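Protein Record: Sequence and Backbone Structure Tokens
======================================================
Tokens: labelled as protein backbone structure tokens, with as many entries as the chain has residues.
Question of interest: how does this chain fold, as expressed in backbone structure tokens?

___
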Amino acid sequence: MMGALGSCLFLISYALGPIIPGVVALDLSLLAVFIAGIYAGPRVGFVTGLIVGLLPGLMFGPMGTGGALGLIALPLGKSFTGLTAGLLANGFNLDRIKGKLRKAVMGVPTVLLAYIPEGLFTCAYFLVLLPLFLNSTIANAIVITVMSKAVAEVLVMSMIMAVLLYNKSIGNFMAAYFNNTSKK
């Protein structure tokens, strides 16, 4: 379900178009990956990331300039985020933190730190992998734009996750939905 939500969020951002004309669109598809990783654990986060990354992988891979490499790399990058979000949530014991505000506050660094592996992978993709296979000479300019956009999006999503973690009803729903069995 989170994979479908993330895919829908990607399609909405893609359909709405760029927030800066001709440059970038606001993509909140990773929100579903953060939700899955934080509430259901690293395995569910990893699989959700793979699913959420399929549409962007297709759009920016074979249908864009990334070729088959994009179809492999984008889902893999998003899966790193889901895996890391789950590991950090478990490590920080987010499900055991008492107090809505404390849990919400801890959600922000969890989300921000969870993006680091994907961010590093994205840099390697644009600066190392893509030039090897596609002879891309504008990789530096692309990676600066993509990473600036990604950091802004992750900041927004960290605030959204803080609100979700603050809300006890949402926490109860997620616990019932994921049945807490996937964290083990």
Q: What stands out?
A: Helices lie at 2-16, 30-40, 42-60, 67-91, 100-114, 116-134, 139-166, 168-178. The longest helix spans residues 139-166.
